[in-house]
## 1
Amino acid sequence: MIEERFDAIVVGAGMGGNAAALTMAERGLKVLQLERGEYSGSKNVQGAILYADMLEKLIPNFREDAPLERHLVEQRFWIVDECSHTGLHYRSDDFNEEKPNRYTIIRAQFDKWFSEKVREAGATVLCETTVTELLQDSHGRVVGVRTDRNGGEIHADVVVLAEGVNGLLGTRAGLRGRPAPDKVALAVKEMHFLSRETIDARFNLKGDEGLVIEAAGTISRGMTGMGFIYSNKECISLGIGCLVADFQRTGETPYGLLEGFKRHPSVAPLIEGSEVKEYSAHLIPEGGYKAIPQLCGEGWVVVGDAAQLNNAIHREGSNLAMTSGRIAAEAICLIKSRKDPMTAKNLSLYKKLLNDSFVIKDLKKYKDMPALLHTHSQNFFLTYPQLFSKAMQDYVRVDGTPKLEREKLMLNSFIKARSWSGLFSDALRIARAWR
Amino acid sequence: MPREPSQRVEDKLFYNRYLVDSGRAHIKVRPHTTPSSRLLSMLKACPARCYELNDKGHVEVTVDGCMECGTCRVICAESGDIEWSYPRGGFGVLFKFG
């Protein structure tokens, strides 16, 4: 048993855990951070996009030494069918600014750097240590953790659960249930290496400019899902994710889906000749506002993916993790400075501060979106993409059919597939959920 | 001739680094005579194809290539079909990029 007692123990060294540990250590708390990987980052998987604003709040001068890949100047949204994509592309030279807003990053490398900042701030970071359970006293109060190291009981005033999407400890301690199959997506990803010049040429980039492609449609075979392509300096992160419940229902394989996406005629030329260096898989919280569990209790708080804080509509997760980690830490520091105990009542300050932030406000805005997309996946991810693609082709193809006739055929194809009432209610449902 | 990309998971897992904790599987399948539909769905849903049907018709798990995503936990742990935990500290998949 480690006799030393800590002000706070942080479980996990992802974005949320690092933000929390850094914030508390900087303010003089005695912090122990536990990470099961061989180094901070070795178990962490993300696309990945980094949002500068949330990191600036923690490390204002991060651009000086953080391992950033490329800053984003272009966003492409694609609706795809088997052989086409209909794209909405946004590119702006405004994004070539002194302090860019979004970067691609490689998580294992970025997190290692982030962890170094946590150590520099004075926290004790212990890797290769899996926390197996929360220590609770006879009143159910969390008083520390048990690890898989010999005699690994460690005590602290408060435990910050930043254990990631699986949130095992919270479930074991009865603080929350397991995520349900319709509340999480499984994403698989490959890292495709190409020369820097090849990436620049294929994506129309120069210098450290980067780009994101997000694609939805027949690639997810009727399931709720999305494919993504992110340009890094010398490699491309390419992946696809779908709801776990959809995989369970359809019997589609994640790697089959990934291969299908890679073979798509709009994608294949982008990765041609690449060398794949890693294949990874990860769960993403998709339940939104309604899936957020209890955020704090006697002697504990939960942040990031473990609290299911993920904005699936805008594909934002790591920034919500960073922000919730920072806010939880600020609440803890405030309670500590008042010399108050880490009770559920006092720690509810975290919940209050989080409610006032963009994190909960954004999730609340889209609270009805998951249910809509998850229950009508066939329409939104198969039928409509096929209809749109066909309509686009009819629009651009010139073959002597009078335009009026063509437009009528186009409209009829939509009505035939979804009916007037179906089209109307789909539009209404989207508008309502988006509000 | 463009090479047809391989769909074999084994080839994909070959890119990854692992430190296998021999004899200490972090996922265990509950002994069964007939596998549940949940367990059977893992034959397809596991991204590392850790789940296989043996010749007795039982679902088995081999965790060596596991990427610790938790998909099987989400599908099979609630019903008790499997027991799921993380590998011991330092063991399991070691992502270079993540």
## 2
Amino acid sequence: MELEALKEIDTAVRELGARIVVLTPELERYTRALHKKLGLPFDILTDLHLKIAEQFGLVFTFPDYLRDLYKSFGSTLDRFHDESEYRLPMPARYIVDASGEIRAADVNADYTIRPEPSETLRLLKELVRTERGP
Amino acid sequence: MSNLNDRLQEFKKNFESGAAPYNATPERVAMMHRATAELKASGIEARALKIGDHAPDFALFNQDQIEVRSKDLLRQGPMVVSFFRGHW
């Protein structure tokens, strides 16, 4: 759902001279299928073993009871991520300016709440307008 | 374009009602709520990078196994980085 919603703002993001990238701990064999299925106009990058998500401070480990629960749903994260730990990134969206500075950050430990793409677009427009000057 | 979080809440409502295909039991729903509450209480959100911090550079492989570098993207303009749990 979130990726489809990001797809809807991709054209507007590009018109502002910006790019969307999605980072996930999943291996290429899964991102490839997902990318194709959704016909995404931006890249999904494999953040292998959550190295980058860790630097952003977003990684947490599933408690044992939840691990067992998801296993019973048939989700095998160890296989998707090439590691035995059930670790995930919190859903988060950042806007980074050309100098590498974070200009907007939206992080939520509750995975059922995601940053709203229309809000991301609004912030990006504001940033580009500020950078270009009056 | 309907709001993403409206759609997510609609999905959540349906999931927690125990409807097919997930058939979630109240015990399972309670467990998931507990996990989210514990994660929030851990203070992890406050430890994540925030406005004004420098974003880490990365070089990662995309879905076509082509390496993408954040520095190359930033040469063209701002970058929106979205972290995604996965397809499951």
